[in-house]
Each structure stands twice: as structure tokens, then as C-alpha cells.
Amino acid sequence: MKLLHFDDFKLGVLNGDTVVDISDIANDVPHIGAHDRINGLIENFETYRSRIEAAANGDGVPLSGVRIRPPLPKPGNIDCMAVNYMEDGTRDEPAPVNAFFKSPNSVIGDGDTMVLPDIPATIFEGEAEIALIIGKRASNVSEADAMDYVFGYTNFIDGSARGLLPPGNTFYQMKGRETFAPMGPYIVTKDEIADPQKLAVQLRNNGTVMQNFNTDDMAHKIPRCISWVSSVHTLEPGDVLATGTNHRGLNPFMDGDKIELEVEGLGCLTIHIKDDLKRTWDRVTRLQHAESGGDGVQTPQTGGKYA
Q1: How many Å apart are CA 236 and CA 199, to the nearest integer?
Q2: In this model, does residue 167 exceed pLDDT 90?
Q3: Are 126 and 114 in contact (CB under 8 A)?
Q4: What is the pLDDT of residues 99-121, one digit of tens each?
Q5: What's the whole-model pTM score?
Q6: Angstrom distance (rounded) from CA 133 to CA 144
Q7: Is CATH 3.90.850.10 the classification given to domain 78-303?
């Protein structure tokens, strides 16, 4: 099942190329807004599943004719795993398990725009990731039981403003910016994904493939991520846990770019990039920059403010 918000945050279920409005069903969930309505629906999904499945066969409207909104407008927690891929075998061993927060105010959805702020970042990037949607309250969960706490999955882009000063004071400034957590276009319930550790992940920038990897390269697998994060703090229904990226394909995001992220089985998330300062970088990935003998991890800025 694929659940999404559309237009003025109506809640819908996808049926092929149409979306069926199930707001009347979802409105039975106590809520004050779309954000806690979807969280409550996730928490009590088995109560509503049969009604939603029946509704899914009804008349809908063309998906192409609606505005898709974030599937989770304001999650309580957005946890993101850090350095969680083996980088195509180039790492000798996994990095120590680690994570960071992104602000719920960072969320945008399909068709929305990531805005690059006026700050002296050395580069702006977006990391292609698969994100887990938590289905029930999770505290100190064992790895053996971890998958029982997954409701579903969605595409996730971890926006990053690299190189801000002072050194070492990085994650908060780099990751928490508004519009830096695109996700969607919908939530795919976990029963539709046979093995989340064997999914192709592809990010395209203006139609050119830049990131292209598989979730089987994940260093700390999904059960380990859930277990570790839930040992630090409790996860609630509707929380988001992004699982990290393969960094070798990271590339600069610039004004006017059209970014498409497609994780196998999760549809395609499309966003746009806006930079009023029109800053520029060479259009190369981290791997291409390294192979050309360039200095540093990323290609340097070539034009605009702070170059």
C-alpha cells in the first residue's frame, strides 16, 4: 500500500496512476493537524487497514493532476545514520555507528524546492537514502525484533551545507537547515518491500545519474540502526530513520537543478534547487574529483559569493 498527502493535505492511497481520497477514514483518528493524523493512523493502522484497502478500489483522481505533499509533514523525530555505507568496498571496516538529528521544519515533499541559504558553505550536497517509517513505540529494541517496528519506507534526501566554521561544529549547522529534508512522494508499507537490504538507489541531477548504489552496501544494517537509535531515545509512530548513503556519488547542488531520487519500489522523489546567489561548482561527483587528482574531498567552488 502507498499512502500520500496531496493538495491541501488530503490523505490518499495510490491505485495505479490515480489517488483515492481516504481523508474521511483518517479523520476518525484524533488529531489537530495532518502531521498527527498520519502518525495516529500509522500507530493504529490495523484498525483502519481493511477500510483503506476497500477504499483503494474506489474512484480516484489522476495523480498527475494533484499537488503531492510530504507524506509525513512534521515527524516528531528525524534520525539520520552517519557514514553508514562501505563505499563499494573501499572502506576496510564500518565506521562506528553514529547518527544525528534533522529538524522537522526541514521537511519538504515531491515537487518542492530546496533553498540554499546565504552562508559560507564550501559546497551544498544532497545524499540519496532510504528512510524507515517507525510503526510503533520503540525503546531499547533488540536487533532480532527490530523489523517488527517498521511501518514502511520512503525516499529521503539528506541536504548538507559542508565546510562551515568552526571545524568540528558541523552536523547541526550542516544538516538542520529548512528545506534540507526532502522525502516522498509517498510511504510504501513494508509488506510491499521483500528485502530492504537489496534495493537499487539512484539519484539523478538534471537527468544525469550521479549516485547509483545498492542498500546491500549498508555497513550497519537496518535492524542494527533501529536497535542502536532506540537505545539512545524512544522512537514514536511516524518517526523517520534515514539509513545513510554511499558518498562516492555526492555532487554539488546548484541553482535550477532538478533532482530525482528513485529507490527501487518507492517511486521517484523530484525536487528543485534554488540559490539566489547563483554559486557554481564543477559538475563532478566526489569520486570523479578524486580520480582527477583534485585536492580535498569535494570539488571547489568556481563562482559566486564565497568562491
Answers
A1: 25
A2: no
A3: yes
A4: 999 999 999 999 999 999 999 99
A5: 0.98
A6: 18
A7: yes
The pLDDT score that the predictor gives to residue 95 is 97
Q: Where do the domains of the chain lie?
A: 2-69, 78-303
Q: Are 160 and 181 in contact (CB under 8 A)?
A: no
Percent helix, strand, coil in the chain (nearest 5)? 20, 35, 45
pLDDT at 171 over 90: no
CB contact at 8 A, 25 and 49: no
Residue 206 grid coordinates = 538534471
By C-alpha distance, which of 78, 101, 3 is closest to 241? 78
- Each residue's pLDDT tens digit, 28-54: 999 999 999 999 999 999 999 999 999
Place of cell 509525513: 72
Which grid coordinates belong to 34? 495532518
**Taking CA 174 as the corner, what is the angle to CA 233 and CA 292, rounded to the nearest 5 degrees?**
125
Amino acid at 117: P
Burial of 50 (0-12, 13-18, 19+ CB in 10 A): exposed
* Beta-bridge partners for 113: 272
Is the four-CA dihedral 157, 185, 189, 202 of positive or negative sign? negative
Q: In this prediction, what percent of the chain has a pLDDT beyond 90?
A: 97
